[in-house]
Specification:
heterodimer, A: 285 residues, mainly alpha, 12 helices, disordered N terminus, B: 303 residues, two-stranded antiparallel ribbon
Chain lengths: 285, 303
């Protein structure tokens, strides 16, 4: 039954929205139909079950960490909660992200979709937004979980609660960027290779600042240009790491959050454009 | 030009212009970050603090927590295995050679994590005082506004008998905005009294009040009990001297002094023996006008 639903979902959703909404031929409506379907599919795939594991992890941490951390349970809960949020989110972005397009091709449901007036770019962006919606639900629930754990440990209001939310926002932006990267790789590669490449992008993205230092320290002009180019080309994910300062009650400056958000949105636009360009050249005949 | 071709050109333009914008954004966000230290360039190929943090891929806080808890368990396990009385600030018999590297790693991963520096300042001086000073100074460099770390560094110097350095350290800490007034008072106290009992009491009282670590608080509390006991023993010796001047001999039992204790409001047990700060009775050295702690029952540290 589930398998049948999955097969029919994307095509039916687009048809349904074409028929039922005013101006149903609009690109936004088609993308939103695909996004909602991708979200439903993720929920049906039990992706959100990771939340149960997260809640268990935090509950255990709230009860036992106090014994082990020498009075540092609040810091440990924020570190553990936000790190788990990033880790689980990264796994979802990579493993669900690389399968978004591949599954549709493998099940041949993509033919049903493209027999409708749905563009390849609309399909990709719709899938992307669907997974971003799944991740949004994920980080929001986890953020509330961390806040509740802090309330429990502090036996009341904790000043760390408002300081974790800017860090949660930055984590979400990083996951959005990572999802776009996963989608780009999956538009031309196998799921296993896409997952590996996306994970490597995550690793390199956190090292990008080292490329700049390396470029400064190199004597050769060519090598300096090469590493400086790489620094600007690769996603700078270290800007999104604000978990540790958040655990000390520090919040990023509004200008910094705005700049990183803008950078993320530009980078995502570039990646989705590249993914669309590659995907539109693929032959499904 | 057909529609498909136009779409591809547009997408190509989005990629090129978008990447240019992204590069500009990176330059902008770089200006919002602290500037790259030119001195750090020379050793950038080695594992410095920032690289270690990046190697943990954004999970550095969690990794620091793990190293912190590992440090506590390392010390706790060795303390549990040790046969005999032991105090947190005198663990030299436990061969804790991994403690300094563990705390160093924790603070490298999360330089704003104050507790490992404080723990190092209390535990490490008995094991390796240079490491204790280095770690606490590392904490001060990473957190120049954390006056508590100046208190800890001053404590290390004070324990070593380097009263001038201790006083100067408290003076530096007292200048930090938000530092309590007693930091300034401590500067003068150490300068004038050095290792006096009153200075020790002040230091351990502040340590007890400020620390969030239960082990450190317990250690400070034991020191305070010992200081209170030393004061009590001095008072008892004065009472012995009075008794001796009246009777020409030292008391043979506590009962002989019960009336004096009662008049002075000194707490006693049923046998009339005065109680030490942990509630255990003092031992009277009969005929010697001397008093001592009963090591079998007392919880006051003997040294």
């Amino acid at each position: 039954m589930d398998e049948q639903l999955r097969t029919l979902d994307t095509a039916e959703a687009t048809t349904h929205y074409e028929k039922s909404k005013p101006g149903g031929s609009g690109s936004l409506w088609r993308m939103s139909a695909i996004a909602r379907n991708a979200f439903r599919e993720a929920v049906r795939d039990r992706v959100l079950y990771n939340l149960v594991l997260f809640v268990l992890l935090l509950t255990a941490a709230s009860i036992f960490i106090g014994e082990l951390s020498g009075g540092q349970e609040r810091k440990v809960i924020v570190d553990l909660g936000l790190s788990a949020m990033l880790l689980f989110g990264m796994f979802i972005a990579i493993f669900v992200g690389v399968g978004l397009v591949y599954k549709e091709i493998e099940r041949r449901t993509i033919y049903a979709v493209f027999s409708k007036p749905v563009g390849r770019g609309e399909f990709l962006v719709g899938k992307y937004l669907g997974l971003c919606l799944t991740l949004l639900v994920n980080v929001l629930v986890m953020g509330v979980g961390v806040s509740l754990a802090l309330l429990y440990v502090n036996r009341g209001w904790d000043p760390l609660i408002p300081t974790i939310w800017p860090a949660v926002l930055l984590i979400y932006l990083e996951l959005m960027l990572l999802t776009a990267v996963a989608l780009l790789f999956s538009s031309f590669s196998s799921p296993a290779l896409s997952a590996l490449l996306t994970f490597l992008t995550f690793v390199i993205g956190h090292f990008s600042a080292d490329l700049k230092i390396l470029a400064i320290s190199l004597g050769s002009t060519g090598a300096r240009w090469f590493f400086t180019g790489l620094y600007y080309l690769l996603p700078n994910l270290s800007n999104y790491s604000f978990i540790t300062p958040a655990a000390h009650g520090r919040t990023p400056a509004a200008g910094f959050v705005l700049a990183t958000a803008l950078y993320g949105l530009i980078y995502i636009t570039v990646i989705l454009a590249a993914a669309t360009l590659i995907f539109s050249r693929r032959n499904f005949k | 030009m057909n529609n498909e071709r136009l779409k591809r050109i547009t997408l190509g333009l989005v990629i090129v212009v978008g990447m240019a914008c992204a590069a500009l954004m990176v330059r902008w966000t770089d200006t919002l970050q602290p500037p790259v230290d030119p001195n750090a360039v020379d050793d950038s190929l080695y594992l410095n603090d920032k690289t270690a943090r990046r190697m943990s891929l954004g999970f550095n806080g969690l990794a620091a927590d793990w190293y912190w808890m590992r440090s506590l368990q390392y010390v706790g396990k060795k303390m549990n295995n040790y046969q005999g009385n032991i105090r947190l600030d005198d663990l030299s018999n436990l061969n804790l050679k991994l403690l300094a590297p563990l705390l160093d790693t924790a603070t490298t991963l999360d330089p704003e994590f104050i507790e490992p520096y404080e723990y190092a300042a209390v535990v490490l001086p008995a094991i390796d005082v240079q490491q204790a000073i280095r770690l606490t100074e590392k904490g001060i460099n990473a957190n120049p506004n954390a006056w508590r770390l100046y208190h800890q560094l001053g404590y290390i110097y004070w324990r070593q008998g380097q009263y001038q350095l201790a006083s100067e350290t408290y003076a530096r800490g007292a200048q930090i905005p938000g530092a309590p007034a007693w930091m300034e008072a401590m500067t003068a106290k150490i300068q004038s009294e050095g290792g006096s009992r009153s200075t020790a009491r002040e230091i351990y009282t502040r340590m007890y009040e400020q620390s969030t670590d239960n082990q450190v608080r317990e250690m400070a509390s034991k020191h305070l009990m010992r200081l209170a006991s030393l004061d009590e023993q001095d008072s008892l010796r004065k009472i012995f001297a009075g008794y001796r001047s009246r009777t020409g001999k030292c008391p043979e039992s506590w009962r002989e002094l019960a009336a004096v204790f009662r008049a002075g409001g000194i707490p006693m047990d049923q046998s009339g023996a005065p109680l030490d700060p942990s509630g255990a009775p003092y031992l009277l050295k009969a005929g010697a006008c001397e008093v001592e702690l009963d090591w079998k029952t007392t919880k006051v540290p003997l040294k």
